[in-house]
Amino acid sequence: MGIKENLEEIRARIAAAAQSCGRSLDSVNLVVVSKTVPVDRIREGIAAGAVQLGENYIQEAREKIETLADQPLTWHFIGHLQSNKAKYAARLFDLIHSVDSVKLAKALDKEAKKVGKVQPILIQVNIAGEQTKSGVSEEGAVDLVKQVSQLANVAIKGLMTMPPYFNAPEKVRPFFRRLRELRDRIAEMDLPGVSTDELSMGMTGDFEAAIEEGSTIVRIGTAIFGERL
Ligand SMILES: *Cc1c(COP(=O)(O)O)cnc(C)c1O
User: Fold this and answer.
1) pLDDT digit string, tens, across residues 44-54
2) Ligand 1: does its nearest atom lie under 6 Å from the Cβ of 134?
């Protein structure tokens, strides 16, 4: 199947998942993950209606964002971000999903200030406590949110997670639920300047379960562009 058909199918599945749990379709945003995908194939996706793109690597994203500057796109940074790349991230991205330390948040705050913007971010939570994954621990999340909320040039919009990999979405569901419950606890604190509306969770193999657990941003690559090389 082509990119256009894949996108149509994913949209239909997102709509069905939202409907099955009584959510409105526009409460779920699709971020089309274009990491490692060449620009000509991304253009096919754009022609088929992709407007929000997700990238993992700063250098790669920089080139693509320049090349596609004439397109009305929103860019999401979803990969691991090192503080020394904050300068580029703050200039290039509309939403940074992967803030997991005060150090990184401060670096983004400084760079966002230089370009006169308030950088929208999500706090990435390592909900299963996996050694190999980035993200703040579930226990450390509230404290991180509190500290980051003090910074004037970054704005927290919600939480993101990359749960453990299983080929059965039902096994991932408990982790999505835990992120939502953590979000609800943070929302109850009513911290000044902190929005908790967004939950970035769900990928090709598990996005329907994520939507049922409250995801507002699904990040899908493989089901649209095929297996990455
Ligand atoms: C690559 C990636 C995705 C997309 O995963 P697919 O399984 O290809 O849909 C989503 N989120 C993050 C953080 C990624 O790195």
Assistant:
1) 999 999 999 99
2) no
